[in-house]
Amino acid sequence: MSEQELLLTVEETHGPLAVAKVGGEIDFHTAPMLRSRVLELIEQGRNRLVLDLSRVGFCDSAGLNALINIWHAAQSVGGAMALAAVPPRLDRMLKLTGLDTVLAIHPTAADAIAAVGPRPGGEQVAG
């Protein structure tokens, strides 16, 4: 596998919100690229992230580690991260590892945007 086999496109940005569509495989070889590119978004002030994983075919432990690192980086600057359209195999792995209790998972990108989208003053609306 090579870094070219991971596709990451930022489809939407609005204020601190960035929606990135991820496709391909998130593994030992591609996870550093995912982490690096999304951390760049955070450094640019896009600290409310939605990762649409609908086109991810495979994710290993390095991929899970990248997701955790991205979540932690967003949290450390007062932001948030949500996963959207998680494929069944990855969803099962998130549940088995207990990460589904840490990472916000939503059925669609629209649901994830509603959950983490920009808020006045960067605050989450209590639900």
UniProtKB/TrEMBL annotation:
SUPFAM superfamilies the UniProt entry points to: SpoIIaa-like
This chain belongs to which protein, by name?
Answer: Anti-sigma factor antagonist
Q: Which family does it belong to?
A: Belongs to the anti-sigma-factor antagonist family.
Domain STAS, by residue range, is: 17-116
Matching entries from PROSITE patterns are given as: STAS
Please tell me the species this chain comes from. Streptomyces chilikensis
Query: NCBIfam families per the record?
Result: ant_ant_sig
